[in-house]
Design goal:
Blueprint: H1 3-12, H2 22-25, H3 31-34, H4 42-61, H5 66-103, H6 116-126, H7 132-147, H8 154-161, H9 165-174, E1 178-179, E2 182-184, H10 197-205, E3 209-210, E4 218-223, E5 229-232, E6 236-241, E7 246-255, H11 257-271, H12 274-295, E8 298-303
Length: about 300
């Protein structure tokens, strides 16, 4: 990866790296270790100055004659607009830093630069949020789209923009039950392990899952001794087999496009949370026991290595 290529991409999302301290942002060999400690960049200095000047003018406003106040109000309005633009610039830079850290040493040939329309939409969203969690989220979105184009469509970007922190926490609660892009409702196991109908209907309302209340939506998979069935989660997989041919048919809840995209963003968080990992193992055991009794199959649980 070269600085020139990164600077070109940065330019397309409105970041002039050549005039924004490239040594602070992108110097090769320092990305991983020093970017976090180098967040005080030129845009932040400009924002601090603008805020100070706006505060000074507001104080002055009460001290001057009425006929001079309109001119000061105009200056304050201009400064407030500058502060907003600089804040958006800061947010975008911080998100772009997260993108750089995520793609790391991946060769340029393995990455695809999104088109300009997509980059404009990403920039608009990344610029809206100032907290570190949001910076990481939008940084991973850009990195993910570069690694696998089409992962984050415009619909997904819109859905991510509207997610609240409570929504994100609820999604984390149901991640242990997601396997192969769907959730088995078998024997209501998911409702006996810390979730309720209200949780799932809320997730359906915000566009993460669908067919929550449907009694006819099911998944059917043939199983025999030569063709096992794999129910794969993030950290564990359930493997079913049978000496005679069986068809496993169970009611399911389906992940949407937005749900699948969020799964990719959340996967590293899941793998680092021992409670979520243990929850998935417990769920796989409960699901395996139920399917064993229901269909007279055998099962095993295997740990999926972290890559």
């Amino acid at each position: 990866m070269t600085f020139g290529w990164l600077a070109s991409l940065a330019g397309k999302i409105g970041l002039d790296m050549l005039n924004n301290s490239p040594d602070r942002l992108l110097k090769i060999g320092r990305i991983q270790n020093q970017l976090e400690s180098e967040r005080i960049i030129e845009t932040e200095k400009a924002k601090v100055y603008a805020e100070h000047e706006a505060s000074r003018l507001k104080q002055k406003l009460s001290e001057v004659e009425p006929e001079k106040q309109s001119k000061i109000v105009g200056k304050i309005a201009i400064l407030n607009n500058q502060i907003e633009l600089l804040t958006q610039q800061q947010n975008t830079i911080n998100s772009f830093i997260e993108t750089i850290k995520d793609i790391g040493d991946i060769p340029k040939e393995s990455l695809k630069e999104p088109d300009n329309d997509w980059l404009r939409e990403w920039t608009k969203n990344a610029g809206r949020f100032s907290n570190e969690d949001a910076n990481r989220l939008w940084g991973k979105v850009l990195a993910g789209e570069m690694k696998k184009p089409g992962t984050f469509s415009y619909r997904v970007l819109d859905g991510l923009r509207n997610l609240s922190k409570d929504d994100a926490n609820l999604i984390l609660q149901i991640i242990p039950f997601i396997t192969n892009g769907l959730v088995y409702r078998s024997n209501d196991l998911i409702f006996n392990m810390g979730t309720n109908w209200g949780n799932w209907y809320q997730l359906e309302e915000i566009g993460i899952v669908r067919h929550v209340g449907s009694v006819s939506t099911s998944a059917s998979t043939p199983v025999d001794q030569y063709t096992p069935m794999y129910i794969r989660g993030i950290s564990y997989a359930l493997v079913l087999s049978s000496e005679t041919q069986k068809t496993i048919s169970e009611p399911i809840i389906i992940l949407t496009e937005l749900g699948n995209a969020i799964m990719q963003l959340i996967e590293p968080t899941f793998k680092n949370d021992i409670n979520l990992v243990h929850k998935q193992k417990e769920y796989m055991g409960n699901l395996g026991n139920y399917l064993k009794k229901e269909y007279q199959v055998t099962y095993s649980i295997i740990k999926i290595p972290n890559n």
